[in-house]
Design a protein that fits this description.
Strands 1-2 form a two-stranded antiparallel ribbon. The chain is rod-shaped, with a radius of gyration of 63 Å. The longest helix is centred in the N-terminal third of the chain and has 62 residues. Helix content is 75%, strand content 1%. The protein is built from 29 helices and two strands. By secondary structure, the chain is an all-alpha fold.
């Protein structure tokens, strides 16, 4: 227990010693009182003395350690004392001299100097404050002089809000403050002047900008690849993948010249847009952004109207159209760049409004000027230029569907131009043709013709050279020109974003117009031409027959180039078969007409002696020549279809029979004798002999002779004077003279009766002649009775 109390006392004394060592001397009293209040102060004193001895030992150790340094410091201090004494002496001397010299200076002068000193100091301070203001103002003027208007505006704002408030009480500052609005207006005016220069510059250079843009679009296929790749993989508006896309394009073999302008080189590479940006920033800073936007848009609308006004002679050359398109493209390239590089100067609604106006005016101008075009090559070049124009603007995001719709209208005009051109081509071919079968002397020429026209004839191939094709040269020429027309139609359909079915339908419709309008009219004109002979007509029939057979090859040709099968729904059929059939039928009718005209020409040479007493020994010369002509003509008909030749021959014989009958009964022949009638019978027998000879193969039996049956029965009735049989059997189906009309018989009988009366005045006194005359009168009376009963 005693040991525990001793330890507690020792710990308490140790705490008190630490407190004495660390506590301020003024506060040590309470601590010492606590020692004396206790009973162990003697022991505490022992510990205190022990602690003092420990500190003395530590001080001694420290002094021993720093003794040399202390000695050195004392040495230095002694040296300084000497120097301090010298300095004191110098100060004392200086003070004495100053006091001595100051006796000469009055107090007023000293005050004046002191005032000047304060003024100079104040002046220096104020100049130090004003100089930055003046420097900033000088910098402002320098910037305005060098046309750095936007930095000048920034300097002006800094001057106004930072520097001028510091020196606002100076008069020059008030002048500057009053001048600031003028400076702002000056900056606005100058920047606006720069903007006007910029607008004038881009108006003059729009065609160059557009030309560059259209050249760089160049290949529509490369553009389609680029848009497809970028849209599918990255979205429409993600331009961050440009370089990746460009690298991919290069790996596909697409070069920079094939990539649209806005993907490869920006419009800023051709135009300096800094005046617009500066002016926009300046007006924005000055709080007049809306004014600037309205002015810019108004001026650009005016320029748009000027750009969209086509020159009056634009339709004369392709360069006129190209310059017009270049200006429009250049205008919208600039606007698109402004849209994407400024915030709100132009917006999408404004661009769309301008584009709608431009689209309507452009389409109207193209409709007007393209209507003057008569050259298919110019129309085709114009179409390609419009496609390039549309693709370029589509690359900048403008809708161009109406342009492609308008191209379909131009396509119809192009088709009309082609039809007019090929109408002239067909006319030249038909006019220059010799309408003779094509002769070939060797295999090379034969294969050349076969290569131009799809013709195959086994019998002709077996024949030795030289030999002839059945058709003339216009057949392969017309066939190849139809193919050339189809190619020309196909060229216009390229790049119009049409389906194969639409292209096929367009080609077929245009080809049908070519066949039914142009070629058909040309053939009809040749057929109806006065100087077209029978030989030419025959050859035309042969030619159209072969062209009709070739229509299926034209169908195959169109199918091969459009890849649309003719059996596809809504596929138009070629009307070539109908065209060539109509032409052939017209040629056939013309052959029949020409033959009849030739027969009429020969009949005009007939010179009968209607009062001849006795007939001649042979047929009339004119009729012999006519029969010879018919024989030579029908010999040419060997290549014609059988029915055509038979119909022509039957038509000629019927016309000859009818014409001979009319010749016999015409009113100018008032009288005729039996001898004249017998001579006429010799001519008819010559015709019948021609019919029996079979001038055209294919007639059965005496079919061709039936053409003369009416005339034969009439002549037999009068020459044989078989009136009793005629009158007795009249009206019976088995009547020998079934085809003799009573009226015709009466007319002819009247002519013979008049002859008997006038030429045989004395013969009436002979009994036979009197009896014959009575018989004629009786027959005539009975014929009139038959005619009257028939009419009743």
């Amino acid at each position: 227990m005693a040991e525990l109390e001793s330890l507690e006392t020792a710990a308490e004394h140790e705490r008190i010693l630490r407190e004495i060592e660390s506590t301020d001397t003024a506060c040590i009293g309470p601590t010492l009182r606590s020692v004396y209040d206790g009973e162990e102060h003697g022991r505490f004193m022992e510990k205190l003395e022990a602690r003092i001895r420990n500190h003395d030992r530590e001080i001694e150790k420290m002094c021993n350690f720093h003794y040399q340094g202390f000695v050195d410091s004392i040495t230095e201090l002694l040296k300084v004392r000497g120097e301090a004494q010298k300095l004191k002496n110098q100060v004392t001397d200086t003070n004495r001299k100053l006091q001595s010299e100051g006796k000469e200076v009055t107090m007023e002068e000293l005050k004046q100097c002191r005032l000047q000193q304060r003024n100079i100091s104040a002046t220096v301070d104020n100049l130090t404050l004003c100089l930055p203001v003046l420097e900033m103002y000088s910098k402002l003027r320098e910037q305005m002089k060098s046309k750095r208007h936007y930095p000048a505006l920034k300097t002006l704002e800094h001057l106004e809000h930072v520097y001028l408030p510091r020196v606002s009480h100076y008069r020059f500052c008030k002048i500057m403050v009053d001048n600031i609005p003028k400076l702002r207006e000056e900056i606005k005016d100058v920047s606006m002047s720069d903007l006007k220069d910029f607008l004038e510059s881009i108006r003059k250079h729009s065609d160059k900008i557009g030309e560059t843009a259209m050249k760089q679009v160049g290949s529509c296929s490369a553009f389609s690849v680029l848009r497809h790749y970028s849209i599918v993989n990255f979205g429409k508006n993600n331009h961050d993948v440009l370089f990746t896309t460009m690298n991919n394009l290069h790996s596909w073999g697409v070069h920079n010249s094939e990539v649209p302008l806005y993907w490869m080189t920006g419009a800023q590479d051709l135009v300096d847009f800094s005046p617009v940006y500066r002016c926009l920033h300046i007006y924005s800073v000055l709080g007049a952004r809306e004014t600037f936007e309205n002015y810019y848009r108004k001026q650009r609308r005016k320029q748009a109207r000027l750009v969209l006004q086509p020159p009056s002679n634009m339709h004369e050359t392709l360069d006129g159209y190209r310059k017009y398109f270049n200006q429009i493209v250049g205008f919208f390239v600039v606007e698109d760049h402004i849209l994407h590089t400024t915030q709100g100067l132009v917006n999408r609604a404004y661009i769309d409004e301008l584009w709608e106006m431009a689209l309507s005016k452009t389409i109207a101008a193209l409709r007007t000027h393209s209507s003057y075009c008569s050259d298919p090559n110019l129309a085709l070049d114009l179409k390609n230029l419009i496609v390039l124009f549309a693709d370029t603007l589509q690359g900048y995001g403008f809708p161009v569907n109406q342009l492609f719709d308008m191209l379909l209208e131009i396509r119809d005009q192009y088709s009309e131009i082609l039809l007019k051109k090929w109408s002239g081509v067909f006319r030249n071919i038909l006019d220059s043709d010799n309408y003779s079968p094509i002769p070939v002397a060797n295999e090379e020429l034969y294969m050349k013709i076969v290569g131009q026209f799809p013709f195959q004839d086994t019998e002709l191939e077996k024949q030795p050279f030289p030999k002839k094709f059945p058709f003339s040269e216009f057949v392969p020429k017309v066939y190849n020109q139809i193919k050339e027309f189809i190619y020309a139609c196909l060229k216009f359909s390229e790049d119009l974003h049409l389906s194969s079915t639409e292209i096929d339908d367009m080609i077929r419709k245009s080809t049908n117009l070519l066949l039914t309008r142009m070629l058909s009219n040309c053939l009809q004109n040749v057929i109806k031409r006065r100087n077209t002979g029978l030989t030419e007509l025959v050859q035309i029939i042969i030619n159209t027959t072969h062209l009709e057979k070739s229509c299926k090859f034209l169908e195959e040709f169109i199918t091969n180039i459009t890849n649309v099968h003719p059996d596809t729904v809504h596929t138009s059929k070629l009307y070539g078969t109908t065209t060539f059939k109509d032409a052939r039928h017209a040629a056939e009718e013309e052959i029949y007409t020409n033959l009849n005209q030739k027969i009429d020409q020969f009949l005009q040479l007939a010179d009968y002696d209607w009062m001849a007493v006795e007939p001649g020994s042979k047929a009339s010369d004119y009729l012999v020549d006519l029969i010879a002509f018919l024989r030579s003509t029908f010999a040419v008909f060997t290549h014609l279809p059988g029915k055509v030749a038979q119909t022509a021959c039957m038509s000629a014989c019927k016309h000859l029979s009818t014409s001979l009958t009319q010749l016999l009964l015409e009113a100018e022949v008032r009288q005729l004798t039996l001898g004249a009638l017998q001579q006429f019978n010799l001519d008819v027998e010559e015709c019948e002999q021609f019919a029996r000879s079979g001038p055209v193969p294919g007639f059965q039996g005496d079919t061709l002779q039936l053409a003369f049956i009416d005339l034969r029965q009439l002549l037999d009735l009068f020459i044989q004077w078989d009136w009793s049989t005629y009158l007795a059997d009249y009206g019976q189906p088995t009547c020998k003279y079934l085809r003799v009309n009573p009226t015709t018989a009466l007319t002819l009988l009247e002519k013979m009766k008049d002859t008997s009366r006038k030429n045989n005045v004395f013969a009436q006194f002979r009994k036979n002649e009197r009896d014959k005359q009575k018989l004629i009168d009786a027959v005539a009376k009975q014929l009139r009775s038959l005619i009257n009963s028939h009419h009743l």
